[in-house]
Amino acid sequence: MTESSPVDTPDTTPDTAASADAPVGVHPAEFPEMTNPTRHGTELPLDRFLDVSLQASVELGQVEMSIGEVLKLGEGAVVQLNREVTDPVDIFVQGIRLAQGEVVIVEDSYAVRITQVERGQLGQMHAQPSNVNTEGATS
User: Fold this and answer.
1) 75-84: b or e for each residue (b if 16 or more CB lie within 10 Å)?
2) Domains and CATH numbers, the chain
3) pLDDT, tens digit (0-9, with 9 covering 90-100), for 57-71
4) The pTM is what?
């Protein structure tokens, strides 16, 4: 056993520990009523969070495969997805689907033009991050 072991020793056991024979008092927790700090139609102060980085990803489609099929995959294998070429792709931020869009090419890189925003997940979008290219985008 090491010195950092979480096991109680006579030196670390609290004096108020209940004995095995004493009944333990159990009662429901009471919490104060929560109030909504903002009124309907007002914006939350998000300015302090605008520089926080989030992980964004784009999903072309999905497929369900057995373990055997996955183990047979190799270089040159083709995995057919559940979407048509004309279907929109899903845009996720921190694992939450926030938008859909279409795949485009900007110079030599793939990009996504947003075609629909899931307002229910994000609420009103207050600002565009400065590293997002919105050229040619329409609202």
Assistant:
1) eeeeeeeeee
2) 53-122 (2.30.330.10)
3) 999 999 999 999 999
4) 0.54
